[in-house]
UniProtKB/TrEMBL annotation:
<dbReference type="Pfam" id="PF14629">
    <property type="entry name" value="ORC4_C"/>
</dbReference>
<feature type="domain" description="AAA+ ATPase">
    <location>
        <begin position="59"/>
        <end position="230"/>
    </location>
</feature>
<keyword id="KW-0238">DNA-binding</keyword>
<dbReference type="InterPro" id="IPR041664">
    <property type="entry name" value="AAA_16"/>
</dbReference>
<dbReference type="InterPro" id="IPR016527">
    <property type="entry name" value="ORC4"/>
</dbReference>
<protein>
    <recommendedName>
        <fullName>Origin recognition complex subunit 4</fullName>
    </recommendedName>
</protein>
<keyword id="KW-0067">ATP-binding</keyword>
<dbReference type="GO" id="GO:0006270">
    <property type="term" value="P:DNA replication initiation"/>
</dbReference>
<dbReference type="InterPro" id="IPR027417">
    <property type="entry name" value="P-loop_NTPase"/>
</dbReference>
<dbReference type="InterPro" id="IPR032705">
    <property type="entry name" value="ORC4_C"/>
</dbReference>
<dbReference type="GO" id="GO:0005664">
    <property type="term" value="C:nuclear origin of replication recognition complex"/>
</dbReference>
<keyword id="KW-0539">Nucleus</keyword>
<dbReference type="InterPro" id="IPR003593">
    <property type="entry name" value="AAA+_ATPase"/>
</dbReference>
<dbReference type="GO" id="GO:0003688">
    <property type="term" value="F:DNA replication origin binding"/>
</dbReference>
<dbReference type="Pfam" id="PF13191">
    <property type="entry name" value="AAA_16"/>
</dbReference>
<comment type="similarity">
    <text>Belongs to the ORC4 family.</text>
</comment>
<dbReference type="GO" id="GO:0005524">
    <property type="term" value="F:ATP binding"/>
</dbReference>
């Protein structure tokens, strides 16, 4: 191959890699309505039917989408909205207002921090493009202001007015607004206003209805859509493939085919399946899967154009890095010995709480047997090391210490399990052999 052709091929590859990085990073980082919904078909059907009644037939409704974090609440609503907007009648008339009770996103300007009802109302006005209509008008109440905004959107009867869809992310945080004024007025207009209005709340709180005031609860329709991450590992593998596949029109079809074939091979690889099984057992949160794939994707370059099983294996190690085990790596040998002493106390007393005096006695037994490998520190020095472990939250007291209580006899609990301790010792630099053997021994030193 001539140098010119090689250069052109390299340029094409670089462009393809850049496109892959862009497409997949956007997919992993945002809740785009791409691909399939796994295990949410029933919820999708119910929500779509509910919103159709608002957008097509002019009915007002309200509903809550409830599920743990990462269960797909935002993805579900985005899929339904995308499907609705394919209908011409809906695309031309539907108005959306997105409010978020928690955070603002730099990338998505519609999602604004709603710290109070006044700020939320300003954001509603902005998203409905009614700033000029409101102008310098002064309103006597929140309800009056909201009613004015909806009146400005009216045209003719209820069926011909523009439907308004309010989507409230982190719905439970709006509950803490003073008197729940925003929620009360939104639910109230969904029952009484001429303009068709639907309020969809997204929350991870299972007890959300218990947090609503009586007057707010009485105006809510009590429609609830639950998401539970009920998919099995077989479906999880399909989600893995869907997240990595290049769909639609990719600039270089041959590269897209090569990439997709590689993804199929990855899904059938035993090493990859083990990595995914471990993550699946740890959490079904799909954002965790996206984070794993993001780390693996960062290794893709012109010279390494496809994700390999080793990339996913290394990404898994980075993702599952144990922060507490990392803290252990920076401890002194004395502090390591105290942790091992606590480990033995846990083994002997089957997880019962211990105090500093018990730990000190255990440490002294080891020193007496192995005086040649570790210095016999004075008790105040050992106490100082023990207090440092408390500050690092590797040990925690079971009760709040009182002024009269002796520090040596406060009951404590170790926050590291045996596997974390042994794994940390394997990579601890220059750890004395006798200390490692003491940690590995099944019985305490008697």
């Amino acid at each position: 191959m001539s140098k010119r052709k090689a250069k052109e091929s390299s340029g094409t590859n670089a462009e393809c890699i850049s496109q892959v990085q862009k497409i997949l990073r956007e997919r992993f980082c945002h809740h785009h309505a791409t691909g399939k919904l796994f295990g949410l078909e029933h919820q999708h059907r119910n929500l779509l039917e509910l919103l159709k009644r608002t957008t097509v037939h002019g009915e007002s409704n309200s509903a809550l989408i409830i599920g743990p974090r990462g269960s797909g609440k935002t993805v579900l609503i985005n899929h339904v909205l995308k499907e609705l907007k394919l209908m011409r009648q809906v695309r031309e008339n539907l108005l959306e207002v997105h409010l978020n009770g928690k955070y603002s996103s730099i990338l998505e300007v519609l999602w604004l921090l709603q710290t109070n009802d006044k700020v939320a109302l300003k954001e509603i006005t902005r998203q409905l493009h009614l700033e000029n209509v409101v102008g310098d008008k002064v309103f006597g109440s929140f309800a009056e202001n909201l009613a004015f905004l909806l009146e400005a959107l009216r045209k003719g009867d209820r069926t011909s007015s523009c439907p308004v869809l309010f989507i409230l992310e982190e719905f439970d945080l709006f509950v803490h607004h003073k008197n729940q004024t925003l929620l009360y007025n939104l639910f109230d207009i969904s029952q009484s206003a001429q303009t068709p209005v639907t309020i969809i709340g997204l929350t991870c709180r299972q007890d959300i209805l218990e947090l609503l005031e009586k007057r707010v609860k009485s105006r809510f329709s009590h429609r609830q859509i639950y998401l539970t991450n009920a998919f099995d590992f077989k479906q999880y593998l399909k989600i893995f493939k869907e997240q990595l596949y290049l769909r639609g029109k990719f600039p270089d079809e041959s590269f897209a085919q090569q990439w997709n074939n590689s993804v199929q091979c990855l899904s059938e690889d035993k090493t990859v399946q083990d990595v995914l099984q471990n993550l699946f057992d740890y959490t079904k949160d799909l954002r965790s899967l996206n984070l794993l794939l993001m780390v693996a994707l960062s290794n893709v370059t012109v010279h390494h154009p496809l994700i390999t099983p080793l990339d996913l294996q290394e990404a898994s190690k980075q993702y599952r890095t144990d922060s507490k085990a990392n803290i252990v790596h920076g401890l002194s040998v004395l502090e390591i010995c105290l942790i091992i002493a606590m480990k033995h106390l846990n083994d002997v007393y089957e997880g019962e709480p211990f105090n500093f005096q018990m730990v000190y006695n255990e440490f002294q037994k080891f020193v007496q047997r192995k005086a040649h490998c570790i210095h016999n520190f004075e008790k105040p020095v050992v106490m100082k090391a023990f207090e440092h472990l408390l500050q690092l939250e590797l040990v925690k007291p079971l009760e709040r210490p009182s002024a009269r209580a002796q520090r040596e006899y406060l009951l404590m609990k170790l926050l590291l399990d045996n596997n974390q301790i042994m794994d940390a010792l394997q990579v601890y630099p220059n750890c004395p052999t006798d200390v490692k053997q003491w940690a590995a021994s099944s019985l305490s030193w008697l």
